[in-house]
UniProtKB/TrEMBL annotation:
Keywords: Repeat. Residues 285-391 form the PRD domain. Coiled coil: none annotated. It comes from Microbacterium terrae. It comes from the Bacteria. The gene is licR. Pfam families: PRD (PF00874), PTS_EIIA_2 (PF00359). Residues 494-637 form the PTS EIIA type-2 domain. This is LicABCH operon regulator. The keyword Repeat applies. GO terms for biological process: regulation of DNA-templated transcription.
């Protein structure tokens, strides 16, 4: 557990990149500040004399060797590493392992190894594998496909956040496997060959495909090939199989049989090739029930969340993805997504739409969905919304530049060229004494001093400089953020009251907290017990811990009699969805407040994504009045 907490600390620091105090990190992990200091010492010891974590007056931040520290420690340095090494030994020995000899090899007692074998049994749930024990021997029994799935699971566990880590892949397969230097060129050549044949390559999925090719090569090298399937694939299937076979022989020096090639071709076609290329965009390839299910669910999501996604091109691409997903589900070949966490915290609204779509697809097609798979749907949704939201993000601007030859025209041209994605120039004032009060655009870009300084007024040079561009971009970001949070402040004052505020959530699990906060809204007549039950069901689909500090549990379906939010404060933090949070906001929306959903949801998450703001609110919010005051103060900056 200590090693896991050290790794979690390093993960938090690496992801954020900023300084963080010991108390802030302690709240996020659920330990004391003293423990944080000891974890930092241990992390730095892993890479001594280098540093994994820097210390300073502002606290701690990740050092350049942070990634190296996550991988340091050796094969059996931790219980997890020892467990993985034990599973690899079982997979490599068809006749089983001697328990006592293995304990000696791992430098642990036989009692410790017995405990590890119990953990192996827990790892095998749902894998179609069985751990058999007879006297001093232990053996794994099950199909070759099931054993490879277990190897895949170990490799994913070894890789940080689903990223393609060559060293972790080799640790999973063992030192006798192909060298890591072979995997990189194999991945590049596979992507190039697939692209040359007209497919769009999904870089997030191709790493998984290479991992499975490496596993197949390792198992075939041990004399454990897959049996050939009864039927042959279609032309695309055979084409991909030929590419994989050629590259495996070239880079890994192994000749794969028909069974392995057909299996790997299926994985590549459903995982590493993104829908949309010439060979995959034909709607005739779609299975009718998949297209129907996707069209229905997308229509419902567009209506429920008031988002512009019900377009034929979007539905076709998503349906092709879901069709591949269904094939992966049959193979239990899930695809990891390294962007899952960032998508969830940065675009909570988009992720929520994806959860709604995933739930509908589960009901209609029976596809079990994990967070990583939901994140891929979120990427489709985000791509569609980005097309329709771009114009909404533009701010209007007026340029004030006293006339001198064509100077104002040159300046406008420079602004359009450098800042066209952020602002739209709708007016140019060439007088030296313009009517400043009449300028009502979002921004005023002026080459002369303005009598009304403020966030929306930016002083620039007649010949636009890089520094000018940065100042305008910063001002635009401040204006956009100010508007978003101003809307949030107005909504919160309507939706939150003292009777739905709790300080002290310690000791409750997710379901207990949801029932406790939900009970406050039930008492107000805002929701009923069924809404609370549906909130728990939504939580089981995907954790609503959208940041390292905030969870926003809610039900799918806006059935509250009025919109209301129940707030719970936990100090210290409590466990939630694999992480820890300090603020829980149970949100109940009514049908009449659909348009407010996005404002409250996204901006509330934005406020609580900033560690300093969270700590300020949690520490000072001793009662409801204090909470609201601090929240408003944070919003107002």
């Amino acid at each position: 557990m200590t090693r896991a907490r050290q790794d979690r600390l390093l993960g938090l620091l690496s992801r954020d990149g900023d300084w963080a105090t010991a108390s802030t990190l302690a709240d996020a992990i659920g330990v004391t500040p003293r423990s944080i200091r000891s974890y930092v010492t241990a992390l730095n010891a892993r890479v001594a004399p280098s540093l994994a974590v820097e210390s300073g007056p502002q606290g701690y931040r990740a050092a350049p060797d942070a990634a190296l520290a996550l991988r340091a420690g050796g094969d059996a340095a931790t219980p997890r590493d020892r467990l993985h090494r034990l599973v690899r030994a079982l997979l490599d020995a068809p006749d089983g392992i001697d328990v006592f000899e293995t304990a000696d090899a791992l430098f642990v007692s036989s009692a410790t190894l017995d405990a590890d074998l119990s953990r192996v049994r827990g790892l095998l749930g749902g894998t179609e594998l069985v751990l058999e024990r007879s006297a001093s021997r232990a053996r794994l029994t099950g199909t070759e496909v099931a054993q490879r799935r277990l190897l895949s699971r170990l490799a994913h566990d070894e890789m940080d956040a689903g990223s393609f880590d060559l060293a972790a892949l080799r640790r999973t397969l063992g030192e006798g496997s192909a060298g890591a230097e072979a995997f990189g060129p194999l991945k590049s050549d596979l992507a190039a060959r697939l692209s040359a044949h007209g497919w769009f390559v999904n870089e997030y999925g191709i790493a998984d495909a290479v991992m499975h090719i490496a596993i197949a090569a390792d198992r075939v090298g041990q004399g454990r090939p897959l049996e050939a399937p009864m039927g042959t694939g279609d032309a695309a299937h055979d084409e991909v199989a030929a590419i994989v076979g050629e590259l495996a022989e070239q880079h890994l020096d192994v000749r794969l049989g028909t069974g392995d090639l057909q299996h790997l071709a299926t994985l590549v076609l459903t995982r590493a090739i993104a829908p949309g290329a010439a060979s995959t965009s034909d709607r005739s390839r779609l299975e009718p029930d998949v297209e129907t299910a996707v069209r229905e669910v997308v229509g419902l999501a567009a209506s429920e969340f008031l988002v512009d996604i019900a377009h034929d091109d979007f539905i076709t691409r998503l349906a092709l993805h879901v069709q591949n997903l269904r094939h992966r589900a049959r193979e239990q070949a899930w695809s990891r997504n390294p962007l899952t966490r960032s998508l969830k915290s940065t675009y909570p609204m988009i992720f929520e739409v994806a959860v709604f779509i995933a739930s509908g697809l589960h009901e209609r097609l029976g596809i079990p969905l994990l967070d990583d798979e939901i994140a891929y749907i979120a990427m489709h949704v985000g791509g569609r919304l980005e097309r329709s939201r771009r114009s909404d993000q533009l701010l209007t601007a007026t340029i004030v530049c006293p006339g001198y030859y064509e100077l104002h025209e040159l300046l406008r041209s420079s602004v359009d060229r450098s800042l066209g994605q952020a602002v739209e120039v709708v007016g140019v004032e060439t007088r030296v004494d313009p009517d400043w009060a009449s300028i009502d655009t979002d921004l005023v870009l002026t080459t002369i001093d303005a009598p009304m300084p403020g966030d929306r007024v930016v002083r620039i040079q007649p010949f636009l400089t890089d520094a000018d561009v940065e100042r305008v971009q910063s001002a635009a970001a401040r204006v956009r953020r100010g508007r978003r949070l101003a809307r949030l402040r107005g909504e919160l004052e309507r939706y939150v009251d003292a009777s739905a505020f709790v300080r002290g959530l310690n000791g409750d699990d997710e379901e207990g907290v949801i029932r406790r906060l939900g009970g406050l809204l039930v008492a107000q007549g805002v929701i009923d017990a069924d809404y609370v039950d549906r909130t728990i069901e939504r939580e089981r689909l995907s954790s609503t811990a959208f940041t390292d500090a905030l969870a926003v549990p809610h039900a799918m379906g806006m059935t509250a009699t009025r919109t209301a939010i129940a707030i719970g404060i936990a100090d210290p933090s409590i466990a939630w969805g694999g992480g820890r949070v300090q603020v829980v906001a149970l949100v109940a929306f009514s049908e009449t407040d659909r348009e407010a959903f996005q404002t409250v949801f996204e901006q509330f998450v934005e406020v609580f994504s900033e560690r300093d703001s969270v700590q300020r609110i949690v520490r000072r919010a001793v009662d409801f009045g204090g909470f609201l005051d601090e929240l408003v103060a944070v919003i107002d900056g």
